[in-house]
Every structure is written in C-alpha cells, then in structure tokens.
Amino acid sequence: MKAILNIFKNQFHTNAYETYVSPGRVNIIGGHTDYNGGHVLPFCIDQGITAAVSYRLDSEIHVYSDNFKDLGILVFDVTNTEYEESRDFVNYVSGMYHELISRGYSIDKGINIALSSDLPVGGGLSSSASLLVLIANILNDQFDLGLSGIEIAAISKKVENQYIGVACGIMDQFIIANGKKDHVMFLNAATLEYELIPIELTEYVFVLVNSNITRKLSESKYNVRQRETQDLLHILQEHIDIDYVCDLTPEDYEKYESVIQQENLKKRFRHLVDENARVIDAKNAILANDFVLLGSILNEAHRSVRDLYEVSSEVLDELVLLALEAGSVGSKMIGGGFGGSTLNVIKRSELDSFLSQFRTLYQIKYQKEPIIHIVSVEDSTRRIHD
Question: How confident is the prediction for the chain on average, in pLDDT?
Fold first, then answer.
C-alpha cells in the first residue's frame, strides 16, 4: 500500500483518499466448463492489482498504471465512454463506466486512479477480470450503488464479452468478486449457486510456473473454442432437451457421441462432460484433504485440455512434464490456454527439493530462470482500511 500511495502522489501531486486490492485467480480445475454451464473450482491468490484513488469534482477519469509507465496518464470523460483503441488497457476502465451508465446509474464525477499489478499479463491469472471487478468496486463505493458481489461479477462479465470482445464465462469475475481467504469456490456457472470449501495448505502447497508466453484471449483460439461448443450444443439440442453441454454426463457421451459427425466437436464433447465430473471429484478430494488424489485428477485434466480441448501449448506441456519429473504430485495448465501458467501440487516437506530440481531442469531446457510463485488463498477485491 505504501508503494501505490507513493506512485499516486508522484503522478497526481496530491494524496489518495482510498486504497484497494483486487486479486488474480487460479482455477484448480474446470477447464472451459464455465461458459458451457458446468462447474469450476477457483480461488483468489496473493498476486493482484493495487489501486490508490481520489475523487474529482469534474467528469474526467485520469488513469495511470505503473506497469505501463510509457503511456503516462490516460484521460477520458464520463460523457465519452465508447471503446477507443488509443485508450489501450484503460478501455477496461471506460467499459465499466459505460456499462454502469447504460444501466441507469448516476455516475457524473470522475476519479484519479493509480494502478500497480504483479499479475503477469497473459499469465492465465485473469488480470482483466481483476481490473474490471476493481473498478466496479471503486464506483460502487464512490456512488453508493448498492451492488452485490454477484451483480458486480455479472456486470464485469458483460463488459468483457460485449465491450472488450472476449467470449469468456463468468468464473473469473465471480471468484474475484466473491472469494474468501483459505477457501476455494465450487461454482455452478449456469445457476451461480456456489459453496465455499475450506482448504488446508499445510502438508501441500500450490506452486505456479509462468510460461512467459503472453496472448490476448480475444486474438487467440479461445473464441474459436467458444463457437465450437455452441455448434456442439445446437447439434445435441436436436436430440435432447438441454441448456448447456455440461448438463450431460460421461455416460451421456456414450449415448450421443454418434450424432456428432465432426471429430473436433467429439473431442470437445468428451472433454467437457469428463472435466465437469472431475471438478466434483476434485472438490471431494479437497474436502477429504487428499492432495495425492487431487494431483492425479489434475494430471488427467491436463491430458484432456491438451488432447481433447486442444488449448495447451508445447511450452505448457513441457512445464507440466518438468514439474512431474521434479516431484509434483499433480500439474496442469491454467487459464484460457495457448499461454499462461501451470498449477502444481507440491508436498511442503519436499518443496525445497522440488524448486531446486525444477530450476535445474528448466535451465537445461530453456537456458534461463523460471518464473515461480508459491500461492496462498486470499480474499476477494476489497478496500484497504488504515
């Protein structure tokens, strides 16, 4: 907080009124099930975006990010919130203003805001959802909008879908708006019913490895997969009354696989029904504090996103293999795919050995140091009080 307050003062030559933190997220399992009406199992992490804010008397919004110093302070007005390419990342800020104003909320004053993030852009930790939920929380407080965490998640998803142009599901926004420290969330993405499941990271820890491959989801095959599963759903709906592909089970795949002619859609179908079942198995493994079982489920999940949903990459697959060789009990890619990070389940008593072996294997393969982070399970977006 001291760092962001200093950044704010240096840029705006005044003191901030409020400070906020908005976390990134890790989805333990549930690869691409959220926009197919299935279950997911995410949690908030101890990396994220910090913000310092002061309120303005005029209608201008002034945004500075310490991560994009070369852009300087970017400015727009509440009377002009349409998407503009020149705004760069600030379109996420203007998008939230645009959506709230279009819903009839009276937002007529601007803000000064300084941002700093330790979330790697494109690292699969949902930096975009973190920023959207952050701005929604700031405006919710500033204008006393009375929005719940569930409403903030839905609004943030709409901005990402319609304003930014990424056909994502609601998982990222939902966990970042509603997560709880030392709990993972078992979320039904179709109904938004959820449970907060206690998790004890005492004997085992979660370790992230960043592939250091950045990609914009809107420019990747993410949207292609979304369209493919919509095509799959429409074919299935000709034979069974369902709302989502994940309404079906692995047993249903055997019944309806023959009606799917395209091989790629068969693969997507197999992945989604199996993955949705794996989320439930993973939830039960956490409830039983069985991290060895959880690890084996994650290994199976990675093979599925690699071979059936086909959203992994050569580097992500290699990182998984290196982690398993170094002693991980379970490893898989996280995020939308084609880049991002891997999640690894490591026995705490073997953590030092794992880190040493993994670094050695990684350096042999890539001739550089890996980007590793041992994550903890944290709270959702919140204002920080002195």
Answer: 94
Q: Which residues pair with residue 227 across a beta bridge?
A: none
Taking the C-alpha atoms of residue 375 and residue 201, their distance in angstroms, rounded to an integer, is: 10
CA 275 – CA 264 distance, rounded (Å): 16
Residue 343 contacts residue 206 (beta carbons within 8 Å): yes
Residue pair 329/345 in contact (Cβ under 8 Å)? The answer is yes
* Strand ranges inside the chain, DSSP E: 18-27, 39-40, 42-55, 60-65, 74-77, 111-117, 183-188, 194-198, 204-210, 330-334, 341-347, 371-375, 377-378, 382-384
The reply to whether 172 belongs to the active site is: yes
Average pLDDT over residues 268-282: 98
The two structure tokens encoding residue 155: 């609004």
For residue 128, what is the enclosing H or E element? helix 127-142
Kindly give the pairing relationship between strand 60-65 and strand 111-117: parallel
Lowest-pLDDT choice from 222-231, 235-244, 260-269: 222-231
Active site residue: 108, 172, 252, 379, which one? 172
CA–CA distance, 135 with 132 (Å, rounded to integer): 5
Measured CA to CA, the distance from residue 127 to residue 341 in angstroms comes to: 13
Question: How does residue 123 score in pLDDT terms, banded at 50, 70 and 90?
Answer: low
> What CATH architecture is 2-199+379-384?
2-Layer Sandwich (3.30)
Residue 40 amino acid letter: V
User: Which residue type, as a one-letter code, is found at position 35?
Assistant: Y
212 pLDDT band (50/70/90 cuts)? confident
Mean pLDDT confidence for 225-245: 97
- Statement: residue 23 has pLDDT above 80: yes
Partner residues linked to 371 by β-bridges: 210
Identify which of 61, 73, 64, 63 has the alpha carbon closest to the alpha carbon of residue 97.
61
**What does the pLDDT read at residue 214?**
61
User: What does residue 315 show for φ and ψ, rounded to 5 degrees?
Assistant: -70, -45
